[in-house]
Amino acid sequence: MGAVDCDExxxxxxxxNIKGCPKSATSDASQLVIxxxxxxxxxxxxxxxxxxxxxxxxxRYLPTELIKKxxxxxxxxxxxxxxxxxxxxLFTEKDSPPPMFKALSNEFRKEMQFGLVNVKKQPDLAKRFxxxxxxxxxxxxAVGKKPEAYKGEVxxxxxxxxxxxxxxxxxxxxxxxxxxxxxxxxxxxxxSRPWLAQEIPEITKRxxxxxxxxxxxxxxxxxxxxxxxxxxxxxxGLVELRDRFTSQLHNRGAKLRxxxxxxxxxxxxxEMFGIxxxxxxxxxxxxxxxxxxxxxxxxxxxxxxKDGVEYLVDKVLGGDGRFKIVKGQKLPELSDREEDGExxxxxxxxx
Length: 351
Fold this sequence. Notes:
12 strands; ER_Co-chaperone
């Protein structure tokens, strides 16, 4: 905010269509001009010159597009896009960000990315991040690191100071902060890598070589289902099995990599496996001769539920699994996926 003395800057006031300039600082002829961000033109405020009314008029123009609304479908993409850039998450019972969070996102737009989670609509996300009570602010410094919770006073300045402590030396584009502010840094976002943030990564065209088919050690336990994402029950069950088998195999030199595949988007893979009932599971050996193990005809009582997955993995580890060679030793091409699309105020600072 700024003030202009029209007696000393008559030309400037006239350029801004200010009429009847005051003769003194206490004159009622004072006028307020609000300058929203481009392309919205400036305008003369015609309401009461009182803090409550002026604040309400100005706050409506704070940018909202810097804050991403998060859900189960886009949270991993958000966390892994520009993976080196810290992420600030607001967990709230409201569907839109409060003015204070808008101001934070604008102030740190070069160094941080901001997301909003409505805990009423996204209870699984709240549970995933350990949020039991809203509002709450978490800051994740990098992919894979445990988020840090803000525990101080709910006011702009202390929150801004806390966020500032975590600001990276380099801003978006790789340049120093001053360079980025000057406009010489790139504004191009690094591609997202959602599989880095997923407990059970999805096999896609971009992730396949990273999560299973990179020549690394171990077999891949591939959970097959029609449509996605994984439900909370499915993910929790697979994570429990993953952790249990990882512990069992710790001293045996064996390794399992746990992933899932959406057969509704990759029907050629279901055809390759010869499977038509879902959910289901296969254990895949991606080394040298490509081959996989699935339920045999005498395993009819087993399905792709948690017990069935455990049964098949135990069978393979026990040496009883019968592997089938992939015809032609060539995997079906995975489909191209489009990137996930974008999906009354108080006078006091609040979340």
